[in-house]
């Protein structure tokens, strides 16, 4: 961290130190986790000799695990007023999983369990971390705070694969990648322990989950949740976008792993400016604007328009919606229930998006990609119109 | 200040440990694709060849492969150079294991096969990142007709007939080709909508039809009468089965372990396959017991 000391101090003039610290933790942790993500398919197929179908099972849907863990962890974090502790437990669990991969050897079942535990670690930390961010910045500057955090996070995602393949090239061994990834994850955990301050505001009081569920009663937070879930139902997974892009543009399949980098680059560049814009003109309008860029993405894919626009637009969509949604939700939630509320929102949105991918896959198989994309685009516009109407 | 010192010390310690582990001696960098003979002759009939899982070399040669197969003086070696954009090649080998041709592929090597005559060559690579359901995968299976030199980059556009009707779906994935003695008919696996099927293809006529469900990575016997493939059991494990093509009678083999490999024929009555880190053999008629054929080995082939 001493390397980027100059940059950190300049940023911290505008952004609370705690937010920068959390961003650096995410950056370092993302380097570690993206290292594993980048080499895991090679490890499973080349080193362990897994066939495609077996790989699909290992990589399968741990979605339910993540969702349940996220809700439970957020509730615990709020109740104990120990958000840093719960987030730290998540970072620690994921770090331990790197060594778990080495220990699992060639057992497919053990590797599956390690991957599941890693996802659980991610589930543990997400909502308490976002709650800490939202409690660390003034309500009026939350968009910028989340923008800074997401930008730092994305830098980590960029570096991870580079580090992984450098280590693999030097050592020729997958376990070296896992060990280096473990060391980096520990470093991230240490930054969290040393530099992140916990926010121990008033306690939620009871052990009951009723107050958290009551957040979904009539009010602005419920409307925000409904809007996010409705829009989630018409937000297709990135993999579909890359697959359509690759097919339409005739990009060779070996370059598929590079496409997400294009999205990440735009996300990285736009996260802070769009977060600041959201602070100035309102989070709602920027959120809506973000989804309109997604409509453009669908349109470009459907009519096979200029392909080079797709990735920047997708990155802009994330920059205008991901952190901005959290920034919009934070002030609507009472402080003792901040993590629980954010977890509800994130889980609802993720569930809706997963449903959308399943439905889109079926529609694509049945009717082709143009009608499926058109349906999504119409759905998006309809959701935005409804949301405007009820606001 | 104190925090900074702790962090710096930890970073140095972790960095040193990680560097030491990465560069510790006794390891070879992962370079691939060098070929060269060392007395191996793919033209001598009846010789068992395997890939050494420790060194990555085809045993008895200096050729490094991720997947390997050979028959009748022709070999195919799938190699990958790792990187942000992994580069994979199907390297064609002559009887002295010298490279004769190199075809660039997109994906991670999964299956390789040479027909009994050495004329037809097939490979399957597997691509992550373009699956459209999360946690999925996709495969690319290609063919080479060594007599004409014609390469089919992917067979996924072959007209497919299922239940008597032309079948269309954007999600078809083919893998694990095996060739008939006539070098024209072939069998393969297709997966679509979450199910896997055995298909029979005709190379010259360029068409294929679904033969039966739940049969992956077929391997046709030298006489063309029996297919051995892996079939998913209700427990989720794969078990090798033999199919008598004339009688359409399916028999489970005596290997009861979960086997995830495309079997190859050791002789007229026996198949061999990778199980764990070793290559095993078992009679192809359901009798007998599995026996260890080669330790620390994969990709078995008989020349």
What's this model, at a glance?
The complex is a heterodimer of chains A (391) and B (303). With 391 residues, chain A is mainly α.
How would you describe this protein?
The complex is a heterodimer of chains A (391) and B (303). Chain A has 391 residues and is mainly α. Chain A has two domains: 17-195, MFS general substrate transporter like domains (Growth Hormone, Chain: A); 217-390, Growth Hormone, Chain: A (Up-down Bundle). Helices cover 81% and strands 0% of the residues of chain A. Chain A contains 16 helices and no strands. The radius of gyration of chain A is 21 Å and the shape is globular. By secondary structure, chain B is mostly beta strands. Chain B has a domain at 43-175. Chain B has one helix and 24 strands. Chain B has a six-stranded mixed sheet, with no helix packed on it. Chain B has a four-stranded antiparallel sheet with strand order 2-3-4-5, with no helix packed on it. In chain B, strands 6-7-8-9 form a four-stranded antiparallel sheet, with no helix packed on it. The longest helix of chain B has 21 residues, at 2-22. Chain B is globular, with a radius of gyration of 21 Å. Chain B starts with a helix and ends with a strand. The model of chain B is unreliable at 29-33 and 130-135 (pLDDT under 50). The interface between A and B is large, with 67 and 67 residues.
């Amino acid at each position: 961290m001493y390397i980027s000391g100059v940059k950190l101090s300049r940023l911290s003039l505008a952004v609370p130190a705690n937010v920068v610290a959390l961003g650096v933790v995410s950056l370092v942790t993302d380097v570690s986790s993206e290292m594993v993500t980048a080499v895991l398919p090679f490890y499973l197929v080349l080193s362990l000799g897994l066939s495609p179908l077996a790989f699909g099972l290992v990589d399968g849907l741990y979605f339910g695990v993540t969702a349940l863990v996220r809700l439970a962890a957020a509730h615990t974090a709020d109740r104990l007023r120990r958000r840093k502790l719960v987030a730290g437990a998540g970072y620690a669990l994921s770090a331990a999983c790197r060594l778990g991969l080495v220990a699992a050897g060639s057992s497919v079942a053990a590797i599956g369990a390690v991957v599941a535990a890693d996802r659980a670690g991610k589930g543990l930390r997400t909502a308490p971390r976002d709650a800490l961010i939202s409690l660390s910045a003034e309500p009026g500057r939350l968009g910028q705070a989340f923008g800074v955090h997401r930008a730092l996070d994305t830098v980590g995602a960029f570096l991870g694969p580079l580090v992984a393949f450098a280590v693999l090239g030097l050592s020729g061994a997958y376990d070296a990648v896992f060990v280096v990834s473990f060391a980096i994850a520990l470093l991230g955990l240490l930054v969290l322990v040393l530099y992140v301050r916990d926010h121990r505001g008033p306690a939620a009081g009871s052990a009951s989950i009723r107050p958290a569920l009551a957040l979904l009663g009539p009010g602005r937070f419920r409307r925000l949740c409904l809007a996010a879930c409705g829009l989630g139902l018409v937000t297709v997974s990135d993999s579909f976008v890359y697959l359509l892009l690759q097919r339409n543009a005739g990009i060779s399949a070996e370059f598929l792993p590079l496409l997400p980098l294009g999205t990440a680059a735009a996300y990285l560049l736009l996260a802070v400016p769009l977060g600041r814009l959201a602070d100035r003109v309102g989070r709602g309008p920027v959120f809506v604007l973000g989804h309109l860029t997604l409509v453009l993405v669908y349109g470009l894919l459907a009519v096979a328009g200029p392909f080079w626009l797709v990735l920047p637009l997708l990155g802009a969509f994330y920059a205008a919606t991901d952190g901005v949604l959290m920034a919009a939700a934070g002030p609507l939630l009472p402080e003792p229930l901040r993590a629980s509320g954010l977890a509800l929102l994130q889980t609802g949105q993720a569930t809706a998006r997963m449903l959308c991918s399943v439905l889109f896959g079926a529609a694509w198989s049945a009717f082709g990609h143009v009608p499926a994309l058109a349906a999504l685009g119409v759905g998006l516009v309809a959701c935005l119109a409804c949301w405007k109407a009820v606001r | 200040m104190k925090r900074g010192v702790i962090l710096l010390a930890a970073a140095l310690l972790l960095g040193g440990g990680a560097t030491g582990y990465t560069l510790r001696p006794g390891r070879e960098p992962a370079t691939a694709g060098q070929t060269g003979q060392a007395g191996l002759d793919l033209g001598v009939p009846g010789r068992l060849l395997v890939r050494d899982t420790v060194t990555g070399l085809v045993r008895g040669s200096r050729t490094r492969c991720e997947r390997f197969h050979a028959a009748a003086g022709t070999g195919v070696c799938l190699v990958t150079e790792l990187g942000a954009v992994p580069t994979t090649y199907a390297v064609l080998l002559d009887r002295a294991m010298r490279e004769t041709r190199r075809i660039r592929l997109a994906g991670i090597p999964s299956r390789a096969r040479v027909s009994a005559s050495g004329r037809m060559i097939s490979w399957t690579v597997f691509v992550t990142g373009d699956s459209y359901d999360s946690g999925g995968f996709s495969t690319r299976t290609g063919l080479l007709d060594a007599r004409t030199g014609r390469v089919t980059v992917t067979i996924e556009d072959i007209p497919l007939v299922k239940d008597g009707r032309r079948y269309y779906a954007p999600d078809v994935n083919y893998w694990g080709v095996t060739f008939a003695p006539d070098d024209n008919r072939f069998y393969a696996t297709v997966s679509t909508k979450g199910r896997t099927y055995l298909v029979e293809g005709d190379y010259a006529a360029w068409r294929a039809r679904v033969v039966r469900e739940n049969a992956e990575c077929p391997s046709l016997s030298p006489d063309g009468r029996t297919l051995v493939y892996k079939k998913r059991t209700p427990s989720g494990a794969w078990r090798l089965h033999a199919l008598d093509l004339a009688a359409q009678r399916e028999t489970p083999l005596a290997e009861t372990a979960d086997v995830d490999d495309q079997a190859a024929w050791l002789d007229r009555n026996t198949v061999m396959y990778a199980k764990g880190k070793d290559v095993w053999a078992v009679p192809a008629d359901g009798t007998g017991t599995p026996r260890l054929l080669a330790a620390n080995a994969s990709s078995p082939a008989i020349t």
